[in-house]
TrEMBL record, chain A:
Residues 46-109 form the MIP18 family-like domain. The gene is CIAO2B. Residues 1-32 are annotated as: Disordered. It comes from the Eukaryota. This is Cytosolic iron-sulfur assembly component 2B. Gene3D superfamilies: 6.10.250.1280, Fe-S cluster assembly (FSCA). Component of the cytosolic iron-sulfur protein assembly (CIA) complex, a multiprotein complex that mediates the incorporation of iron-sulfur cluster into extramitochondrial Fe/S proteins. As a CIA complex component and in collaboration with CIAO1 and MMS19, binds to and facilitates the assembly of most cytosolic-nuclear Fe/S proteins. As part of the mitotic spindle-associated MMXD complex it plays a role in chromosome segregation, probably by facilitating iron-sulfur cluster assembly into ERCC2/XPD. One of its GO terms (biological process) is chromosome segregation. It holds the Pfam family FeS_assembly_P. It comes from Oreochromis niloticus. InterPro entries: FSCA_dom_sf (IPR034904), MIP18 (IPR039796), MIP18-like (IPR002744).
UniProtKB/TrEMBL annotation, chain B:
Keywords: Cytoplasm, Cytoskeleton, DNA damage, DNA repair, Nucleus, Repeat. Belongs to the MET18/MMS19 family. This is MMS19 nucleotide excision repair protein. The gene is MMS19. Component of the CIA complex. Residues 534-952 form the MMS19 C-terminal domain. The keyword Nucleus applies. Key component of the cytosolic iron-sulfur protein assembly (CIA) complex, a multiprotein complex that mediates the incorporation of iron-sulfur cluster into apoproteins specifically involved in DNA metabolism and genomic integrity. In the CIA complex, MMS19 acts as an adapter between early-acting CIA components and a subset of cellular target iron-sulfur proteins. SUPFAM superfamilies: ARM repeat.
């Protein structure tokens, strides 16, 4: 992370961003109830990558097809794909996604964040960590960890 | 003799001890007039020059220098020699003596009879003894012919210089040395070394630097030195190649820019031996660059280099360095164009194009080498995305070839490829892929813009393709590109467009959908879309007058047949036709010929159509108002039509004569009165210099109509028209019989007030409308009677019925109106009328608010009026004025009206970005009110308040941190809002507040 160390994946493939969501007439209508949908969650997740000056979307870590939300049953499931199978940042990225969702969604939702099956060497361990409420809470007590997470979540000032 | 020396002595005494500066002038005059010689002066100075006090010595030298400055012309060679010896000696003296010594030396250098060799010895001693700062400011005097010695001295003196001020001066001197034709001799390399060691400049001025020297200034000054002479080429080019290898971005950029600048001076023999190295470096930068700046600098350098090579005259035995260089480029780049994955195709293409655009010769060589393989590639590829990329590359080539084509009638480089290019463009146009089609249209446009490239049959074929696309292609982007391309073709080949394109479009528009009876909705819909595209294409091609004359009749015919019902056009289509006419009208404004055609043929037709339509109560005219410049003649016709019912100038004259268009008729017959908006269109857009005929009669008719008519559009238009005329009416009437403006307004006000003051009157709204429009007209021209109207307006804020309307009226006063009273209509609009209105009336508003009875429905009117005014003020003024009004605005946030909430929030938001101290003191109140508004029933208010809350998080941390927990709790609720737009804003705001005071956040 610091300047001196080499990046694990110095030259990632960059994907095009999907562009702004098109605003529909029903969204502007006061009386219509807009359910929370996949795209909305996906837009919330425009988080910076801890290593690169790019968003997770541009690195294809988060894709809209891997975001599943059920507004009626109060569940959100997000699968993310590390850029390389042995990426040490996987836990950190998962944690950032989880924190961002916790901060941005009503507390009626149950949030499930895990690695896209078959894309990481230590997939199970990371998934287990992310699913454990206690461990997530403990991680956020750690000031230096919280600092990195907050950096990922701050809007980029360009 | 004794008298002379005493005179000199007394002058010296007074200057040196008496410190009277004016005596220097007297002494100089004495020498000039021959009262005493310089030698005698020196003798008189004797004691002061040998004094033990350095200040006295300085004073003495000062006097001598002043005198020498005045009369250096009269000195003999011998005297000069003695004086120079003296001054050189003095240089070794105390530092306070130095400035006058230098002054004296400067005066001596101007002597015409300078002894040979003395300048050299002078300079040598100057360089030896003086410390840098002063030295450099001294060097600026011109000594040609000193040659190498001077250069050497200069080099020595600036070596190791660090102060940016001196460096800037030194660079300028070096530049003068180079440009002034000094013989650099064997010190060329030294001079280069001593300046180039600063390259690339790495300098960041200290904060609050008093000298204000910027990095950019230093960079420019140094670049001027380094690129100043071809003699530096052998040193500079290797340096640049070396610096291009550096990792520092600014060094690369500087090197590339310097390269581009220097080669403009060089000839091919200077660069020949470095070509390979330069090319490798530039290629690397363009291929691997991370920044667009460096890439474009690299390409510019390549272009400059190529044009340098193309410029130089070849001798018979030297090799053609241009073709050698282009060979390098082609060898490295060409194969990338043919790689199967097309990965490096863009950088290679850019490099090739940069070289290509440098000169005609380069473009010949490169095009001949590259174009065939590109064309072949295109034909071999089957994937649309690849084809598109190739087509884009081709377009860039066409473009760069165009750039370098000289004006003389050279045959176009591309002529050889005309057929092949046309065939790929047409094949791309017939593909089904939309992005390929779009690219093909832009290639077609660039091809057409190459003078003399395409022959008539090509254009015809192209127009056929475009027409086909227009009629069949559903994709909006494609039809937009096609319309644009058709416009470009029409600009260049009007005749062909008239014969090929317009008849087809016309035919298509007038065909009825086939199976109308079966009511196939999709069929109808697509037919509608085709007509729309035809209409916009017609508008786009109407650029040349000849095309306009063909296309407008078609549009008029559409209107006419829509009106008679002979062909079925929907209302949308008619509106679009009018829009197209409007677009054409806006474009032809400037052209004399087409403009006349418009006035003579087109406007009468339109007016007559509008009239016919109105007589049959048809809803057409709303869109036909004419926002363009009418000549006085047309205006007078319009006025006589409306006032007198004169229909003689209209075509197909079938109207009842003497219609009373401005008479208020009873009941529902407003179909005619509605036409007053046409009148408004024609008379209110006239320049102020054109006099409107029968203006007094017209004004009183309009006043009558606006006060008495019951149809909203009619009375509003009449009021606007009245206001538009009032705004332009001269203060004193030109004809003596007419009313003056003041009496006119007073008469109108009397009538309006009498209506407004009687609560039972049925036309209060009409009277109010007239008043507010006239008020706007007067506000814009700073008319003194304006205050009468505003006072009335303020008093209406307390009115039970008209209060809300009056509050909204302020928004009308402050905003620009689109159809009348704007600068495009030549209205009299003074600058900063909004600020003026605000500063004159904000106090009244605050007063009125405080005086208004509590608990009634009236306070909100004041708040609304205030927020309407503040909202329209320029942001800079808002920011400075708001603190005074803050408590009122906070009050506005807690009143029940949602419109007020919204406009107040939109006023507050820009202020929150740079919060004034007053606002921070009221933070608690502000946050309370904003948090309350999160649950407003109107979603726009919820969104605005959330975005204000988000901005609050950027306040100084210690001020807002205490509210963090409360705000976060409050923001949890809108996360589950039923509207997505609100949720988005809430997510944003909550995220920002979470970061507040958290490690890694803020």
């Amino acid at each position: 992370m610091s300047e001196g160390t080499r990046l694990e994946n110095a030259n990632p493939v960059i994907f095009q961003r999907s562009g702004e969501r098109v605003q529909t007439a029903s969204e502007e209508d006061e009386d219509v109830h807009d359910p929370i949908d996949d795209r909305e969650i996906f837009d919330i997740l425009s988080i910076n990558d801890p290593e690169h000056p790019l968003s997770l979307e541009e690195l294809n870590v988060v894709e809209q097809v891997r975001v599943k939300v059920n507004d009626a049953e109060n569940t959100v499931g997000v699968e993310f794909t590390p850029t390389i199978p042995h990426c040490s940042m996987a836990t950190l990225i998962g944690l950032s996604i989880k924190v961002k969702l916790l901060r941005s969604l009503p507390d009626r939702f149950k949030i499930d964040v895990c690695i896209t099956p078959g894309t990481h060497a230590s997939e199970e361990a990371v998934n287990k960590q992310l699913a454990d409420k206690e461990r997530v809470a403990a991680a956020l007590e750690n000031a230096s960890l919280l600092e990195v997470v907050n950096q990922c979540l701050s809007t980029r000032s360009i | 003799m004794a008298a002379e020396s005493t005179l000199a002595l007394s002058l010296v005494e007074e200057f040196v001890s008496g410190l009277q500066d004016s005596k220097a002038k007297d002494a100089a005059k004495g020498v000039k007039d021959g009262k005493f010689t310089v030698l005698q002066l020196v003798e008189a100075l004797g004691s002061s020059l040998t004094s033990s006090q350095p200040h006295t010595r300085a004073r003495g030298v000062h006097l001598l220098s002043e005198v020498l400055q005045e009369c250096y012309g009269d000195l003999t060679e011998r005297e000069v020699e003695v004086l120079i010896a003296f001054y050189e000696n003095r240089l070794k003296d105390h530092y306070v003596v130095t400035p006058p010594v230098l002054k004296g030396l400067k005066a001596l250098t101007k002597c015409t009879n300078l002894p040979p060799g003395s300048a050299v010895s002078m300079l040598r001693s100057v360089f030896q003894d003086i410390h840098v700062q002063v030295r450099l400011s001294y060097c600026t005097f011109k000594l040609k012919g000193l040659g190498a010695d001077f250069v050497f001295g200069f080099v020595q003196s600036m070596d190791g210089e660090r102060d940016p001020r001196n460096l800037l001066l030194a660079f300028q001197i070096a530049k003068n040395l180079i440009h002034g034709g000094y013989d650099l001799g064997k010190f060329t390399e030294e001079l280069f070394e001593v300046t180039s060691c600063y390259f690339p400049i790495d300098f960041s001025p200290p904060p609050n630097d008093p000298h204000g020297i910027t990095r950019e200034e230093l960079v420019q000054a140094l670049r001027a030195v380094l690129t100043g002479t071809p003699k530096f080429a052998e040193f500079l080019l290797p340096l640049l190649i070396e610096k291009l290898d550096s990792d520092v971005q600014s060094a690369k950029l500087d090197s590339l820019q310097t390269l581009a600048a220097c080669v403009s001076q060089y000839e091919h023999k200077h660069v020949a031996e470095f070509l390979q190295g330069l090319w490798t470096s530039v290629r690397r930068e363009v291929f691997q660059t991370s920044s667009e700046k460096i890439e474009s600098a690299g390409l510019a350098a390549l272009t400059a280099l190529t044009s340098c090579l193309s410029r130089s005259v070849l001798s018979s035995d030297s090799e053609d360095s241009l073709s050698t260089f282009l060979d390098f480029i082609l060898k490295d780049c060409k194969h990338h164009l043919c790689e199967p994955d097309l990965k490096l195709v863009w950088p290679s293409a850019k490099l090739l194009q940069a070289a290509c655009s440098a000169s005609t010769r380069a473009s010949h060589i490169i095009t001949v080498a590259v174009m065939p393989s590109l064309l072949e590639q295109y034909n071999n590829r089957t994937q649309c995305s690849h084809r598109r990329t190739l087509l884009e590359v081709v377009q860039r080539f066409i473009h760069s070839v165009k750039n370098c084509q000289s004006s003389d009638n050279d045959e176009s480089v591309l002529l050889a490829f005309r057929e092949a290019l046309c065939s790929i463009v047409f094949s791309a146009l017939s593909e089904s892929n939309s992005s390929l089609q779009i690219t093909a249209t832009s290639v077609l446009t660039s091809l057409a813009q190459q003078a003399g490239l395409l022959v008539e049959s090509d254009i015809e074929l192209a127009l056929d393709h475009l027409t086909r696309l227009l009629l069949t292609e559903e994709d909006d982007r494609v039809s937009l590109a096609v319309v644009e391309c058709a416009g470009a073709l029409a600009q260049l080949h009007p005749a062909l467009v008239i014969t090929k394109l317009i008849p087809k479009l016309k035919k298509e528009m007038f065909t009825e959908p086939m199976n109308q009876d079966q009511e196939e909705v999709s069929e109808l819909h697509s037919h509608h879309a085709v007509r729309q595209r035809c209409l916009s294409a017609l508008a786009a091609v109407s650029i040349q007058p000849s095309v306009v004359q063909e296309s407008t009749p078609v549009l008029l015919e559409v209107l006419r047949s829509a009106h008679t019902g002979s062909v079925n056009f929907s209302v949308d289509e008619v509106v679009l036709t009018c829009r197209s006419l409007q677009r054409i009208a806006e474009r032809v404004q400037d052209s004399e010929e087409a403009g006349r055609c418009f006035h003579d043929v087109f406007i009468p037709h339109l007016l007559s159509l509008a009239l016919q339509a109105a007589l049959q109560a048809y809803f057409l005219m709303r869109c036909v108002w004419l926002p363009f410049r009418l000549a006085g003649q047309t205006a007078s016709r319009a006025v006589s039509l409306f006032l007198d019912g004169d229909v003689s100038f209209l075509p197909d004259n079938s109207f009842p004569s003497h219609m009373q268009l401005l008479k208020v008729l009873s009941g529902d017959s407003w179909s005619l009165s509605r036409l007053v908006c046409l009148l408004m269109g024609s008379v209110c857009s006239l320049p102020r210099s054109v006099e409107v005929p029968q203006i007094d009669k017209l004004l009183s008719a309009l006043e009558e109509m606006s006060c008495a008519c019951s149809h909203p559009l009619s009375y509003t238009s009449a009021a606007k028209c009245f206001a538009g005329l009032v705004n332009k009416k001269p203060q004193v009437s030109v004809s003596s019989s007419g009313d003056s403006l003041d009496s006119l307004i007073q008469r109108m006000m009397k009538r309006v007030c009498s209506e407004l003051d009687s609560p039972s009157s049925s036309v209060r709204t009409q009277a109010f409308t007239l008043m507010i429009w006239v008020a706007k007209a007067l506000l814009l021209r700073y008319h003194p009677l304006f205050t009468t109207l505003t006072d009335k307006l303020f008093s209406l804020l307390d009115d039970a019925d008209l209060g809300p309307m009056a509050a909204d009226g302020f928004s009308l006063l402050m905003s620009d109106s689109t159809d009348v009273l704007n600068r495009a209509c030549h209205a009299d609009v003074r600058i900063m009328y909004r600020q003026r209105f605000f500063s004159e009336n904000s106090a009244k508003l605050v007063q009125g608010f405080n005086a208004a009875p509590q608990g009634r429905e009236k306070k909100p009117n004041y708040l609304k009026a205030l927020s309407n005014i503040v909202n329209k003020l320029p942001k800079q003024v808002q920011v400075t004025e708001l603190p005074a009004l803050l408590s009122l605005l906070l009050e506005a946030l807690s009143c029940p009206d949602q419109d007020i909430h919204l406009s107040t929030l939109s006023c507050l938001e820009p202020v929150l970005v740079n919060p004034p101290q007053v606002l921070i003191q009221q933070l608690e109140a502000l946050i309370n009110r904003l948090l309350a508004l999160i649950s407003s029933p109107a979603m726009s208010v919820r969104i605005a308040s959330l975005s204000c809350i988000s901005t609050l998080s950027h306040f100084p941390v210690h001020e807002v941190l205490p509210f963090r927990a409360r705000v976060l709790r409050a923001l949890a609720k809108p996360l589950d809002d039923k509207k997505r737009l609100v949720r988005r804003e809430a997510v944003q705001a909550r995220g920002e507040w979470f970061l507040l005071g958290s490690p890694g956040g803020r």
